[in-house]
Amino acid sequence: MKLHSFFRSGASYRVRIALALKGLAYETVAHNLRTGEHKQPEFLRLNPQGFVPALELDDGTVLTQSLAICEYLEDAFPAAPALLPADPALRARVRAFCDVIACDTHPVQNLKVLGRLRAAGLDEAGVNGWAAKTIEDGFAACETLIADQPGPFCFGDAPTLADAFLVPQFVNARRFGAKLDAFPRLLAAEAACLALPAFKAAAPESQPDAD
Asked: What is the pTM of this model?
């Protein structure tokens, strides 16, 4: 498999975590978002949205969208560790947690949206404030969604896709100066994750294209 990625991309980070937790080997193909490599015709043939990540399977099939890729990995490689609970209701709750981050939080403070805010005349402090508030709102929902769940991870004693989506969002949260003291349950889950080798291997600073 080939993972088309960028080391600082939160969405790529999610997929790297899922691959590492599953113990799956892959080749990294880096696309520098800062220099526009993701907008080049050769990449747009893989993903017409021009987003990373894209997972290129050995038969040439290309999968896009981080949640879809992670669910493919769960379906195609069901052996332990499972990244989604067996119980249907709990499984749906993990997916909902992931959606809060992947659909309602991260996209509203990604590079494309922040660029449009700058183009509309918002100064850098305003742009960063927008991003921080967006993340804080998303984290407030996530904190409540797992309030009744045992730790140390988001949904119990082993990481799930919820953790794979949470940890990269913390990187963005700190980058933009989001206030995190109100989210002790999320912070505890992050700490448990960062102690695991799979999360360390997937971290931005551990990637071949990190600078």
From this structure: 0.94
